[in-house]
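Structural prep section.
Before we set up the soaks we want a predicted structure of the protein with 2-acetamido-2-deoxy-beta-D-glucopyranose in place, mainly to decide which crystallisation condition to try first. Input record follows.
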Amino acid sequence: MHLFIPLLTVVASFATSTAAQDGPVPPQMSLLYSMTALLGDRFSLGPIPTGDERIVIPIVGGSFHGPKMNGESTVLSFGADWRLTDAQGVIRPDARYNIRTNDGTNIYVRTEGYPLPDGRTMLSGKFETGSNGTYAWLNDVVGVGVLRRNGTTAVIIEMWHVGALNVDLSSARANY
Ligand SMILES: *[C@@H]1O[C@H](CO)[C@@H](O)[C@H](O)[C@H]1NC(C)=O
Ligand SMILES: *[C@@H]1O[C@H](CO)[C@@H](O)[C@H](O)[C@H]1NC(C)=O
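Run finished without errors. Recording the tokens verbatim:
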């Protein structure tokens, strides 16, 4: 018992100092790409069992470029935002579409998000592409995007790679 109490004290103070030194460490982010996506004519499914309204906004083209992407690449006319207005009236984007890098790599993009009070929309992004290709690393990317409208027929999305190592924001900005 006499030995046990000092040991506990040592363990407790060690744990405290470790926590104080390490603390939460925010992940780094680097720009993945900046994209302009062109939108087609939207239509509504009306109210659905899971929400007040499902609106389909076709994605009909566009372009993107980024520091780790090879030149100016293409948003294919092959997807949509099946966005939901939920029971509380909150608009929840749910977009799935395909993009193609200018060296011919096909990438499937999925984003979900929620609107910010200032009119922009926060997105989480996931990517799927050939695991034998140049862009295989995209399969493991945790993406965070910021979307803003550009008129009624286009949106601009800046997509960030969270947790990227060897971040060189100066070159990211230069390419952007
Ligand atoms: C990846 O695999 C597919 C199907 O096997 C093949 O068609 C494609 O050429 C491969 N890509 C590369 C970059 O090796
Ligand atoms: C926004 O839209 C305007 C008008 O169509 C266009 O000139 C401009 O290039 C667009 N901005 C971006 C960043 O795509």
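Observations: The radius of gyration is 22 Å.
Flagged for discussion at group meeting.
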